[in-house]
Structures are given as structure tokens and as C-alpha cells.
Amino acid sequence: MTSVPLAARLGIPRGPLFFPVTAYGPDGSVDLDVYRAHVRRGIEGGAAAVFACCGTGEFHALTPEEFEACVRVAVETAEGRVPVVAGAGYGTALAVRYARVAESAGADGLLAMPPYLVLAGQEGLLRHYREVAAATALPVIVYQRDNAVFTPESVVELARTDGIIGFKDGLGDLDLMQRIVSAVRSEVPGDFLYFNGLPTAEQTQLAYRAIGVPLYSSAVFCFAPEIALAFHRALESGDTATAHGLLDGFYRPFVELRAQGRGYAVALVKAGVRLRGLDVGEVRPPLHEPTEDHVKQLAELIERGYALLEENK
């Protein structure tokens, strides 16, 4: 691991944040060789960081042993070129266990996902994430979504917690996020990282940037890195014509296709990786594969996206 703190490495958006899918072989077991190839392609393709075994990587479907193996492979493949952040979740005891496993595997940080099943109050959520943050020396990014939704006051407390460096939003409530950013800016001096974690975050990133959320996850980078990079460059340079062209011609149709099936935020991405020539296998239950027609539509959409890049040259 590099001596540069994770917050500093992530704070300047040098490229899309890469959330690799987890590769499975024909028998359904984790295929570490294919996973290594997938991670390597992403790093060499311009990713600013690797978020291993998170939502797109089917954290929910992995055993602790599989999780450790994948995180270790991601760290080995990165070779310090980019940071590797690992997922951690479930109830507090298991989240702590996954955090420690990630630390032993060499991860640079943690993405702390929502607790499993329960709807907890703010006091309980704060206690949960404080315990996860205290369990290792790894910096933690807290992921807001589903049953983990925070008030601005609670995020201020998170920002004051040793080890918690950032907040990722997968809820999509811009009013709430604006109040969160404002409250933390007013109450906690220093830099606190914010991430747009909505599925296909590019679709909403223009709005998120406007309220002070500069970082975002890119599932599209898994299977169409050139498109994701072109969009990222357009955002950073203020090239709204290119950004709008990609939103209108690629991202909006992709979001509409993704909405055709539950779990497509993962399954459709994995299908896209296979379409681009890397056999990462199917998703594990309870997710299911896209229909044949939806995969055909995805292939056509990917072609259209690359055609847009040619037109903008």
C-alpha cells in the first residue's frame, strides 16, 4: 500500500471509480483468473480506484473465503497504482469481520454497506458504523441506501468519527444530500468525501456535481470503459455538449433498459462484460440473468455508444 492517505488519493477525480463484477466459472465457483483479468483491464483502462466486492461485485453472494480471495487478487493486481476499497456489510459483527478480512487482504479502505434486514434508528446506525470504523485502521466510506438513511445531523456525527472519511449516496434525494453537504461543511472543518452511488450514476452526476458531490461510481466502466472515460472527461472539462450527447444517446436508453428487470443494475452489467469478450459467468441467485431480447438490446446500445464516440472525435 502507498503511504498517501486514501482520502487524498480519491479526493481528486482522475477517472471513473471502477466497481468490478465478480467472475464465476461454469460450475458457479469464483474464477480468480478471469477476475484478475477484469480488474487489470479496468486499471489499465484508466480507473481511478477499484471498489472490490461491493454491490456490482455481488458482495451479498460471496462467502468470507471468496471475499478475501477476491480482495487479495484486486490488491495484487493493482500493485499500488490505484487504491483498492472493499465492501463490508451485514450486521455489526459480520461487518466487523469482513472489515478485518479486507484489512488482512491488503485493502486500502472500506465501503460500509447498509446493515442487513433491520430498519434501525439514527442512534443504532451511528453505533453500527462507529463500531465498523473502530474495528480496523482502514478508512471507511459509509453507503446510504435502502434501510440506511441518515439525517444531516447524523452525517455530521459520522464526519466527526475517527476513520470515516466519506459518504456515498445511493438514495437519490437531492434535497437531503444538499442539506447533508451544507451541514457537514458548516459543522466539521476539513475535507469530507462525497460520492454519487446511484445505479448508472452518470445519469444524475451533473446534478450531483452542482450540490458538491464530485465523485461517482461507474458500472458502465466495467463493460464500456471508453464511453465512461469520455463522459468523465466531459464532466471535468465542462464539455456539456459531449456529456449531453452521451446522456441522450447512451446513458438514458441504458437506464431505461436497466429498469426492465429487477437486479439488472448487476445482471445487465455482467452481460455487458460478457458481450465485450470476457466470460465472467452469470449472476448468482437471487439475481437472475437478463432475457435474450434485453441482451440483444444491450449489444445494440453498446454499439451506439461507441458510434457516438467516433462522431465526437
Q: What would you say this structure looks like, in words?
A:
With 313 residues, the protein is of the alpha/beta class. It is 50% helix and 11% strand. It has an 8-stranded parallel beta barrel, surrounded by 6 helices. Helix 2 (32-44) packs parallel to helix 3, helix 9 packs across helix 10 and helix 10 packs antiparallel against helix 12. The chain is globular. The relative contact order is 0.12. The model has no long low-confidence stretch (mean pLDDT 96).
Kindly report how far apart the N and C termini lie: 38 Å
Structural class: alpha/beta
Shape: globular
Q: What share of the residues does DSSP label as strand, in percent?
A: 5-15%
CA-based gyration radius: 18 Å
Task: Please give the oligomerization state of what you see.
Answer: single chain
Fraction of residues in H or I helices: 40-55%
Mean pLDDT: 96
Low-confidence segments:
none
Number of helices: 12
Largest sheet: 8 strands, parallel, barrel
Order of helices and strands: HEHEHEHEHEHEHEHEHHHH
Q: Largest sheet, order of strands side by side?
A: 1-2-3-4-5-6-7-8
Write the layout of secondary structure elements.
Elements: H1 6-11, E1 17-18, H2 32-44, E2 49-52, H3 64-78, E3 84-88, H4 92-104, E4 109-112, H5 122-135, E5 140-144, H6 152-159, E6 164-169, H7 174-187, E7 193-196, H8 202-210, E8 215-218, H9 225-237, H10 240-258, H11 264-275, H12 292-311
Parallel strand pairs: 1-2, 1-8, 2-3, 3-4, 4-5, 5-6, 6-7, 7-8
